[in-house]
Structures are given as structure tokens and as C-alpha cells.
Specification:
Layout lengths: L9 E3 L8 E6 L8 E4 L7 E2 L7 E7 L13 E2 L16
Parallel strand pairs: 4-6
Antiparallel strand pairs: 1-5, 2-3, 2-5
The structure holds zinc ion.
The site of zinc ion (ZN) has 7 residues, from loops.
Amino acid sequence: MQKAGNATERYETGFVVPETGIYRVEHQKHQLPDEVMVLKGQAFPRCAGCNDSVLFQLTHAAPNLYQPSARIIYELPVIEAGAFGARTSATS
Ligand SMILES: [Zn+2]
């Protein structure tokens, strides 16, 4: 019920994006991109690997990024472990 601040407000899959910008992605079950750009008016994308909600937190509002031809993301690709270099588990 805290509507005063906007820095920590979180949104989840299916919600309408209130503001074009970069959102931080939170999802427990799968490794998803850390950040995603979504456009105002579209729905927050879901996880490609499951139907569970993904949480989004606005990090950079970027209305200037809006382009009519911008690709709308409907789901977030699951990142395979190690595909982009594991950050949490260093393999030596
Ligand atoms: Zn998932």
C-alpha cells in the first residue's frame, strides 16, 4: 500500500507496463535476463520456462527509447547455466 515512492514498486507478468524503460527482472525458478526493456502499454512478459509470474522493478525510465517498430517481448528466454558465463558459480 505504499504509493508514495516509485523506486521500489514491483510489477508482475501480465500487468500493463506503466512506463517505458529498463526493468530489473526477478524470478526464482529460472535464470532470466537481468534486465529487460519494455514499452509502456504492453504487458510484462512471462517466463519462457514456466507459467509463474516474473517480478519487474523499474530501474531506468526511458521514454525516449520508445520506437513504434520496437519489438514487443512476450516472454523472457531462460538462460542456460553457463551460457553467458555464470556469475554466481565460478568454474575453474
Ligand atoms: Zn520460469
